[in-house]
Design brief:
Elements (H helix, E strand, L loop, with lengths): L10 E3 L3 E4 L6 H15 L13 H16 L4 E7 L5 E8 L6 E8 L8 H17 L3 E6 L4 H10 L2 E12 L2 E11 H4 L10 E3 L15
Parallel strand pairs: 5-6
Antiparallel strand pairs: 1-2, 1-9, 2-3, 3-4, 4-5, 6-8, 7-8
Helix pairs in contact: 1-2
Length: 215
Amino acid sequence: MDLPTHPAPYRIRTPRLLLRCPEVDDIPAVHEGVLETVDLLAPWMPWVEGEPVPLSQRTRDIERLRGGFERNEDFTYMVFDAETDEFVGGMGLHPRVGAAGVEVGYWVRTRRQGHGLAGEGTSALIRTAFEHLGVDRVEMRIEPENGPSHRVMEKLGIRREALLRRRFLRGGELRDVHVFTIFRSEFAGSRASAIEAHCFDEKGAPVPPRFRVQP
């Protein structure tokens, strides 16, 4: 794993969403949202294979995810409605795709799907990766049969770069996966750049971009 040189912000605000580092107080809402959506997530998310889990395990999971921020290793955000504070889903920046890159992952709970929230959050994370982590590329890895996630990429205008055969382990089986990639040099002209995102540190202070993305 190639760790980022710079830490990710603890909070990201978009017009409709608040993405934040996991907190123990989030556990009941996250637990409810995962259980509501487990049937839709099961075909695509390996971590769902053990669901449902007890609240004690959810607590350990949240503590582990928070530790990723503290160790500057991996950044999984809990996503909330910016106005109502309803739990919406989970999204993350994962430095597991080699040098100078991160992978974006996302899921949205059942009752909040179909309103463009996955695209809004993904756009915010792509901007954050370029402006705060300083990476050169952002990848999204999606199985060929995952139509909803493919449509998110289409709406953002992100190019499908490759089909990797038998690279994704799920349910004890190696599966194919499409790789969608956007490079730093492409971001300013992309539809993903239309979403504003404001970043904050652990104490809530604004964090200005470390790296400017030139048009």
